[in-house]
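Can anyone check this?
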Amino acid sequence: MTDLFGNPDPDQRPAPASGGSLAGADHANVPLAVRLRPRTLDEVVGQQHLLGPGSPLRRLAEGQPMSVFLWGPPGVGKTTLASVVSHATNRRFVELSGVTAGVKEVRAELATAKAELARGRGTVLFVDEVHRFNKAQQDVLLPAVENRLVTLIAATTENPSFSVISPLLSRSLLLTLKPLTDADIDTLLDRGLTDERGVRTPEGGSFTLDPDARATLVRLAGGDARRSLTYLEEAAASATALGSDTITPEAVELAVDRAALRYDRDGDQHYDVISAFIKSIRGSDVDAGLHYLARMLEGGEDPRFIARRLIILASEDIGMAAPSVLQTCVAAAQAVQLIGMPEGRLVLAQAVVACATAPKSNASYLAINAAQADIAAGKGGPVPAHLRDAHYAGAEKLGHGQGYQYAHDAPHAVAAQQYLPDDLADARYYEPTQHGYEAQVTERVRAIRQLLGRPDA
């Protein structure tokens, strides 16, 4: 049995050398993210909202039988927490992948767990990507969880409410993990540089991490602990190849080998790329829109920021020419929040294609700008008396509501009466275009204004 990184089961690995560091070839061959995997809950970085005294994870580590679902983005410690919990009480730790394991493998592990339990040793069954299990596979787990044959720790990047059968979920605790903060990633980088299990120069000394290189590693990590340590390890190897004990931005760039390093999420590139992104979609160049989307995603840009910009664009630059695009963009933003990355890139790509290929109109944008300009200029007199609220005592004596015509009683449900204040009675804010669906709106607006006695000039 292997873990998430393809390494032997922890029970079958060579014992660590004195001091906790892996010796010789083991240290060189085991990825840094695995070497630095916390050995106790107190070594876990991040997720402090789940690690307080008396928390479910603390009780699990103390041996209390229960099953939990860990829901969160990649690289936030789901596998780590499962491993730490299992070894805290010397329980057997078994890992299955929802991608590769079938019903046969699940049944076999449960049979072994039953035999181990009869000998007095419990089993922690860690199922990674449990949302990949179909209903039949999840049904196999149900009796084992219900009878506490195993302690199930299931990890998922998708909302379990939509991907896990209700009976299994109702018998387990759902714990939500958060992306690591920049401060958390910074702590991990320090650990990778100073811990005896961390990166070392050929002479066995410590590396120095250039401040700009550190900032780049933190940004590229995107809240993912595994990614941050992988990049640090590769950057240290690049520095060694350059004959230096200092990890510089150049060493990081060689290690990551991505154009993403030329995207500064907090600097000029951030503003330049998002500007080019919006202008490309506004200009209907779908290929350019996808290019800048990929550039931002690879640079670690927050996908929620991108989704918000698309929602704005859908109203500002497309509007009534294709009103359904706004719905697409709102749905994309909700989906990104729900499923996270990397799958969220597919949703954003669909929204970009929808926006770029849609007919364009900024008529709604210009209309609200014009209306607000009039308000800012001091225009906008009293609300016409017949439109004022007439539902309170004394309103009738003030003439409120008198002469009001109920629109649904009028032909075409358009009542010819004055709606705007006197000083804006002839104002025209919305000027629809002939693009897409808005061409139909143009004819309707013209007909309505005729019925209202305010024909277009």
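Reply from J.R.: I decoded it. Residues 1-26 have pLDDT under 50 and may be disordered.
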